[in-house]
Each structure stands twice: as structure tokens, then as C-alpha cells.
Specification:
Layout (H helix, E strand, L loop, with lengths): L8 H24 L10 H10 L9 H36 L11 H14 L4 H26 L5 H26 L5 H9 L11 H17 L11 H6 L4 H23 L5 H13 L3 H23 L9 H19 L1 H7 L1
Length: 350
């Protein structure tokens, strides 16, 4: 799809190191940024390290400590994990379907997870139960799609049926989601539902971080270990069989891991658009189509992008903006620019 700009191993290593450095600097800036308290940059690592090993003298206030640990730390970690999760799953789905417009929601996981969360709101569940229900419904929907697609055509050309059935299931969940919004209490429930569907880091609590990171590792680590094999996803069943590759098992593992990443991200922060579509394209422009390079680059770019958007969401207005507004305002023009820039190559490939 794209010819990489960074070709040498040394150049790629330098690029990844630069992204890590940018992310570290942005994390420090994110801790400093905020309306509640302007904390000294030198105090931030001391506050965090003191929670693990109390060796520093407390030169900060209890308010500063509470803001860092209970407000900014959870949303910064969530921004990094969710951004990386959506970018990785988007890159994986684009490789799986050999489709440049595939994204982390190609199999309807976002709409189904959103339906689960809204159902939880209507049942007046607490926020933890809402997140759990959202995650389970998202995973169950994608598993059902895979089973149906496999049965319909006896595991042949399963990717085509995955896309088609995914569109059907996504449309059904979107319709059911509209029904739930229609019957929701317009005074108490509907504003909460609408705000959640637009995505926000404000509902992430310190107690959520361990589950957020655990699900990210469960989904991301197998994909990173298998990333050199993900290049085989573009092969047909016959081509994969000729080289002794069990392509159906590889597809199944890929879908399971990508679904875990997307569903956990949606359950944690609500709907966040464009990251799973745009970030993998930006990564491909820089490092090419090789999944061995693409997945690390996509994860870091996704983390940086979402953390920057969250910083803007909580600082450019008196009231915190839903984060999908900002990701859409930035993502749509960037994707359009990529289409215009690469239009000749896209036409030649098709």
C-alpha cells in the first residue's frame, strides 16, 4: 500500500526512540497541565515514586498529591493505553481485510460495546458494571460474527463474510442503540448516554487502571509476538496452505486479540473515532506495510495522539469537551489529505 520512508534498521530504531521521547515529554506536560493545580514538574516523579517507595521528603501539598494520583495519573495512563489499543487494532484489521478503510470498528465491536454500556445506564448499574457489560457485549458480538462467517462458507473466503456480516451486526446494534436512546429518560439518562458515546477520560478511576493495562497486555502481547506472521494475512487460503500456514487459526487469534483491545478501550472511555483508521495510515507512510515495524509505530503514534487530544479536551474550554469531537476534527482532514496525496497510488493498486 505504502512505500516506507524509514528503510534502515538504524533509522527505524531512531524513529521509535524519538516517539518514546515525545511520549515521555507529553506525559510530563500532561501532569503539569490542568485547571485544579499547577504542580512543579520536579515534584511529579517524586509524587509517583513515593507511592512505590517513600524516600522523598514531601515538599508538595496533599491537594497536589491527590490531583496527580487520583485525577491526572488515571486519565494519562488510559489515554496511552486506549490510543495504542485502537491504533493497533486498526492496523491489524487493515492487514486482515487488505482494506485501507478498515478500522478498529470493522466488525461492529464499537457499536455493540456502546449498546452494552447504554443498556447498563438504562438498568441504573454502577459505572464498573456498565464497563463490564460493555466489554462483554462487544466481545460476544464479534465472536458471533466470526462463528456465523465461518459456518456460512465452511471457513473459505471467511474475510469477505466477516466484513459483510460485521456490517449487518453493526447496523443492528446501531438501530438497537437508537431504540435505547429513544426510551431513555431525557432528563436524567439521555445526557449521560450522549456524553459517554462521544468519549471521555473523565470517568476513568485509579481502580480501573489495573484492568485497563491487563486487557491491553492480553490483547497486544500476542499480536506483537506474532507480528511478523501478520504479513501473511493478505495471502489467500490456497497460498497459505502451500507454505504450511494455518491461516484460519492466525485469523482467529488476530480477531480475538484485536477485539479485546477495541472492546476494552470502548468500555473504558466510550466511543472515540478515527484513531483506528487514521493512525495506521500515518504509520504506514513512515515505516511501510511490514507489520513488524507497523505495530510498534502505530501503538506509539496512537498513544501520543490520544494523549494530546485529551490534553486539549480538558484545557481549551471551561468545560471538558468530549474527546471524539477533537479526534474527528483532526482525523477527518488528515485522512482526506492522505487520500489526496496518495490518490494516484490508490488508483493504480485498484
Amino acid at each position: 500500500m505504502y512505500k516506507e520512508k524509514i528503510t534502515s534498521r538504524k533509522g527505524y530504531a531512531f524513529f521509535i526512540a524519538a516517539l518514546v521521547l515525545v511520549l515521555v515529554v507529553l506525559v510530563l506536560f500532561s501532569f503539569y497541565l490542568g485547571r485544579f493545580s499547577r504542580i512543579k514538574l520536579s515534584s511529579i516523579p517524586k509524587i509517583l515514586l513515593n507511592e512505590i517507595l517513600p524516600v522523598f521528603e514531601k515538599t508538595w501539598t496533599k491537594v497536589d498529591e491527590s490531583v496527580v494520583l487520583n485525577l491526572r495519573f488515571p486519565r494519562i495512563i488510559a489515554s496511552i493505553v486506549v490510543g495504542a489499543s485502537l491504533a493497533i487494532s486498526g492496523a491489524v484489521y487493515q492487514a486482515l481485510f487488505s482494506n485501507p478503510v478498515a478500522s478498529s470498528d470493522s466488525l461492529g465491536v464499537s457499536s455493540s460495546a456502546a449498546f452494552g454500556a447504554v443498556l447498563g445506564f438504562l438498568l441504573n448499574l454502577n459505572i464498573v458494571s456498565v464497563k463490564v457489560l460493555s466489554f462483554l457485549v462487544g466481545c460476544a458480538a464479534v465472536f458471533s460474527i466470526y462463528v456465523i462467517a465461518s459456518r456460512i462458507n465452511n471457513r473459505k473466503n471467511v474475510t469477505v463474510f466477516l466484513i459483510l456480516i460485521g456490517m449487518v451486526i453493526s447496523s443492528l446494534f446501531s438501530a438497537m442503540l437508537s431504540v435505547l436512546k429513544y426510551i431513555a429518560d431525557p432528563i436524567d439518562q439521555l445526557p449521560k448516554i450522549t456524553y459517554w458515546l462521544m468519549g471521555s477520560m473523565s470517568n476513568v478511576r485509579l481502580s480501573d487502571i489495573s484492568y485497563c493495562v491487563l486487557l491491553f497486555l492480553v490483547g497486544a502481547v500476542p499480536l506483537f509476538l506474532l507480528r511478523w506472521r501478520l504479513n501473511l494475512l493478505s495471502l489467500s487460503d490456497a497460498e497459505a496452505k502451500s507454505i504450511g500456514e494455518n491461516i484460519n487459526l492466525l485469523r482467529f487469534l488476530t480477531i480475538i486479540c484485536a477485539t479485546l483491545l477495541t472492546s476494552s478501550a470502548v468500555a473504558m472511555t466510550g466511543g472515540i473515532n478515527w484513531i483506528g483508521l487514521v493512525i495506521p495510515h500515518i504509520a504506514r507512510l513512515l515505516v511501510g506495510n511490514d507489520s513488524r515495524k507497523l505495530l510498534p509505530a502505530s501503538s506509539l503514534l496512537g498513544a501520543i495522539f490520544l494523549l494530546a487530544m485529551d490534553d486539549m479536551a480538558r484545557s481549551i474550554s471551561v468545560y471538558e469537551l468530549p474527546i471524539s469531537i477533537l479526534t474527528s476534527l483532526f482525523g477527518a482532514p488528515v485522512f482526506f489529505a492522505i487520500l489526496i496525496w496518495r490518490r494516484k497510488q490508490i488508483v493504480d493498486e485498484n
